[in-house]
Amino acid sequence: MTAKIIDGNQLSKQVRTEVAKRAAALTAQGRQPGLAVILVGDSQASQVYVRNKIKACEENGIHSVFEKYDASMTEAELLARVHALNHDPKIHGILVQLPLPAHIDSHKVIEAIAAEKDVDGFHISNAGLLMTGQPLFRPCTPYGVMKMLESIDYPVRGAHAVVVGASNIVGKPQAMLLLQAGATVTICNSKTRDLGHHTRDADILVVATGKRNIVTGDMIKPGAVVIDVGMNRDDAGKLCGDVDYAGACEVAGWVTPVPGGVGPMTITMLLVNTLEAAERN
Asked: Which CATH architecture has domain 139-263?
């Protein structure tokens, strides 16, 4: 079996076309969607992520504000800046790029963001709404995964979904969204005993552990949909995921590549969340 590829680049272009249309309509009414992105410190990876987010905003009609601060910024100063943005009517979404310097409590910062501007979907009230099946904002990566499943018209209801990874950013919200869509969900992690026992039973397999090749071809059910959220480097320094891609392609029915899979969709769903925040405003 040769798996079909779920092209995140292509799908993100389609979604962004619709975002741009809706953003233009709001702008014509004098309500251009606005996103503020705050970066504290000099992490090269974070700078790349932020640059991509700002570029995506500019290309799709969303007003963006980028604020970069030295790693010496105090927690109180950052909280004050978030508070000011909460009250800025031109800003509909606030994103504080993680990780933050060690002296700043990221949980405190996330909770300081107004829930109606929490376009990352990390605020405790948004996490609670997601748990009850009434999300205000869906976290961007899991939201993107659901869009990918929708794009291939996969029957999620009644399927057995296995999520490998239990982070607050991907694993837990991903499980909640799959439950909401009617799947039977098993949550595993990198320490799960006999991980293959669980993954081989998955119709939908979402892997998000940050461990290269934690899932190999012999751990995949023939015909399954394999969504690889991981972002690692192989021995040659090339980007790769958590799944052995070559092995997965021989067994799975559908598979996402790394790069070019979930990554583009994550930024795209950030645009969608910002747009939805502006439409609700």
From this structure: 3-Layer(aba) Sandwich (3.40)
